[in-house]
Amino acid sequence: MKSTLEEQQAFVTVVDSGSITGAAERLGITVSGVSRALNRLEQKLGATLLRRTTRRLELTEEGETFLGHCRAILAAVEIAEEAMLDRHNQPQGRLRVNAAPSFMQFVIVPVIGEFRARYPGITLELDTHDRFVDLLEQRVDLAIRIGDLEDSSLHAKPLGHSPLRLLASPSYLERCGTPQSVDDLQHHSLLGFSQLEHLNRWPLTRADDKPLHIIPTLAASSGSTLIELAIAGEGIVCLADFMTIAPRQKGTLIDVLPDHTERQNQAVNAVYYRQATLSQRARLFMDFLAERLPGKYLQG
């Protein structure tokens, strides 16, 4: 007897959610319903797909092999359904997008209303995380990555670039003075990141020709917090342009050491796994961002 799509979906969802209970919540069915689907599937295949313990589920070798086939089958069915909807120009379904919290807040959220008005049938789930997530494990259809891409398993569509610059509030510079050289920064309050150390490398070169890696005087885990601290006059910050458009336009943050700042553009890409077939929904969202972001939020 052949397995059904329902049984395959239950199996994949259990793996992705890490538990039968989690899969039941995602699928909107009972825990016993998921368990029965798994049992039927294993009986039909004559193989154990998951080892169940009191604390976790673990894929067997057979489960690993069958999982890849299930993902491909379910993706093909989804694409076929989308193709039929596309014939009537009615893209529908769920689209989960992942991005860093600051990019989501300052760039994606402001244009979401326009996308939803254009494609009302697409249900968006906006997921944020400071660190790169596994797209398959987190069931992410499309992710926005900032900086160099090191994962060769990803397809990437460039959306633009965002320069880095040093900024401070006028009140801070009036109180503490305006630095005239890179060395002057050692006498100032420097605002930096508490968790992502690479973000504390500023686009400046010291007198000994070494890049400047600051030790923050005041650290925070998010760019949003650092912006508010800088506006409040707590120190000098270095952030990507897409985060600081509004305060720079209002004059609540102004450039610091612009003549000493090296041109460093952070690449911004929309990414998805090479082995995944890009859904129509993801394509539409990716093309929308590529059309909407350059010029206002990103440089081309």
UniProtKB/TrEMBL annotation:
Residues 9-60 form the HTH lysR-type domain. It holds the Pfam family LysR_substrate. InterPro entries: LysR-type_TF_proteobact-type, LysR_HTH_N, LysR_subst-bd, WH-like_DNA-bd_sf, WH_DNA-bd_sf. PROSITE patterns: HTH_LYSR (PS50931). Keywords: DNA-binding, Transcription, Transcription regulation. Transmembrane segments: none annotated. Belongs to the LysR transcriptional regulatory family. This is LysR substrate-binding domain-containing protein.
